Amino acid sequence: MTSAADHLLVAPILIPFFAGALMLLLGGDRRRGTRTALGLASALALLAVAVALLGRAARGEPGTYLLGDWPAPFGILLVHDRLSAAMLALVAVLAIPALIQAAAGWQRQGQFFQPLFQFLLMGLNGAFLTGDLFNLFVFFEVLLAASYGLLLHGSGLPRVRAGLRYIAVNLTASLMFLIGISLVYGVTGTLNMAHLSRLVPGLAEADRLLLHLGAAFLALAFLVKAGAWPLSFWLPAAYAAAAPPVAAMFAILTKVGVYAVLRLSTLLFGTGAGASAGFGSEVLAMGGLATIGMGALGVLGSRTLAHMAGNLVLVSSGTSLAVTGFALAGAGGGVLAGGLHYLVASTLACSALFLLVGPLGRDQDGVAVAPLPTSDDDPTDTEDEAAEPQGPPMPGALAALGLCFAGSALVLAGLPPLPGFLGKLAILSALLDAEGLRLPPSLAWAFMILLLLSGLAALIGLMRVGIRVFWTSEEPPPRAWLLEVGPVAGLLAVLVLLTMGAEPVQRHMQATAAALLAMPQQTEEILLAPRAEDQP
Amino acid sequence: MEAVLSAAIGLLAASGVWLLLRPRSFQVIVGLCLLSYAVNLFIFSMGGLSVGAPAIMPRGGFVNPDAYADPVPQALVLTAIVIGFATTALFLVVMIASRGLTGTDHVDGRERSP
């Protein structure tokens, strides 16, 4: 446990923490170039660590890290498995394009963009790695506090108004989170997730009710973050108001909620949970379906590209939640594997769409996000030039933007051959074969129909925007800069790579789903994690 | 003692929820504060109530755990207080910014109808 390789597990939290702290020390606007370079270096290092952890997880090596070398279950520990390694990789892959686009212009709108971005990454990585319930709350707060600052980045009335609601909703959700944690602790006397999953089957009947109550409170907090209907009305407006690179990173914030629901529900209420097995699966499935429906309607009703992307985020997280509900109710690993595949693909595509809002929105009143804010240095300066990107303009901008837009649209609509289609296909075929599903079959059919209809809605909505921007526009074609379009192209390249490597990706997701559903076997390894002190 | 504490938590939570749903930003933030007091007391009570029991056990030898208070909820509530304080301060800043930009303290940024 003492070799350098073992400390790799804590690196995804420490790298952005130190990078962000160093940026604060550097201070001032004069060092903007240094800060940008530091931010990018940190994101690249995170990607390298995530790939190494992904490789480790894929080989099936257990990963636990005891913080301060306190033995489990008393100390806080970090756990990594296939799911958290995949989410870490997703965070890093989303962070790099967002940072590059921010470097092109948006980060000049305020002083603290780069440090806040690093703290957001730290919170995200911590939430994906932690194996302790209260520690999960702490990392949630870290990422939320950073996201409050980032949402307001650039200031302006629309952002402040959206930020006010976003913060109020999330503060209330955090209080729910605390109530849930304390109820779970009051009943079981532990906060270690692996320990919890071993204690759940043996609970007394009266305690079980309290545990379910605590889990419901926790789920409420996570579902607010995941944007599940009817807790989602704040989401499209908040995401649409954020600066495009920020919104591109926010695309994964809902997935943190989905991740927490998936992780805790499979641990606490999986097949080995005795009388509690499958608790909440109906709520998750139906809530997911309602979210998909609301998201699809929102896509059809959106007037701006940013609102549409926000609603597409809802569709994506609703699908993931419904998949979690079905998997919990015994639909099998195939559904979950397809859902995870879809989650990764749709998150990447939503992020690409948010990044496109910048270059597409500048000249088009029809799709403008919000009035471009004033420069930070000079409050009287209301010229749009403040956000004009630096660097060489893009040749053939319209064609490149159009290609990127079409690519993201294809993924989100779930058309072949891109990975959105593969994920949906895997969900559908697994649902058709599902045996032992403890939910009514009509719900499964409703899910399949909604899945296809939401793809159709995404296609119609995005086509409408596409036609207006690219074909019928009277104005000169949008100007675009390499630093703005390049990141979107990069994200799409990742999606193409995922398509070409669809088979290994799907295999990884299947192994992930199988491991999640058989979690109680893994918990023993986690609880018996060796301490460094005991090692020769 | 249990009845008094539960009544206090319930009263704080009820007032907090009522204020949270009011349209003025000042009421919202006071509501959030009251709600967080209720939650903090709730966390604290989850370790069981005891009077005069220390939370830290002496080193070595046999210790009767019944004579000590559960230290974990106390640590949790400390963390929760700090985090809640910081995020509330942040919220206050945003509210002041909103007040400055809109000229009203309504949460929607505009009065309903003149």
TrEMBL record, chain A:
Region (Disordered), start-end ranges: 368-391
Membrane topology: Multi-pass membrane protein
Pfam families: Proton_antipo_M
Signal peptide start and end residues: none
Regions of compositional bias (Acidic residues) in chain numbering: 375-387
Span of domain NADH:quinone oxidoreductase/Mrp antiporter transmembrane: 131-435
Subcellular location: Cell membrane; Membrane
Keywords: Cell membrane, Membrane, Transmembrane, Transmembrane helix
Transmembrane segments: 6-26, 38-58, 83-104, 116-146, 166-188, 209-231, 237-262, 283-302, 308-328, 340-361, 397-422, 443-467, 479-500
Chief place of localization: membrane
UniProt xrefs under InterPro entries: CPA3_Na-H_Antiporter_D, ND/Mrp_TM
Function: NDH-1 shuttles electrons from NADH, via FMN and iron-sulfur (Fe-S) centers, to quinones in the respiratory chain. The immediate electron acceptor for the enzyme in this species is believed to be ubiquinone. Couples the redox reaction to proton translocation (for every two electrons transferred, four hydrogen ions are translocated across the cytoplasmic membrane), and thus conserves the redox energy in a proton gradient.
Family under the similarity heading: Belongs to the CPA3 antiporters (TC 2.A.63) subunit D family.
UniProt-recorded name of the protein: Monovalent cation/H+ antiporter subunit D
Organism encoding this protein: Rubellimicrobium aerolatum
Lineage: Bacteria, Pseudomonadati, Pseudomonadota, Alphaproteobacteria, Rhodobacterales
TrEMBL record, chain B:
The entry's keywords: Cell membrane, Membrane, Transmembrane, Transmembrane helix
Membrane topology: Multi-pass membrane protein
Record's protein name: Na+/H+ antiporter subunit C
Transmembrane region(s): 6-21, 28-56, 76-97
Lineage, highest ranks first: Bacteria, Pseudomonadati, Pseudomonadota, Alphaproteobacteria, Rhodobacterales
PANTHER family to which the protein is assigned, alphabetical: ANTIPORTER SUBUNIT MNHC2-RELATED (PTHR34583:SF2)
Localization (cell): Cell membrane
InterPro entries: CPA3_antiporter_subunitC, NUOK/Mnh_C1-like
Keyword Iron: no
Entry-linked Pfam families: Oxidored_q2 (PF00420)
Organism domain of life: Bacteria
UniProt family annotation: Belongs to the CPA3 antiporters (TC 2.A.63) subunit C family.
Native organism: Rubellimicrobium aerolatum
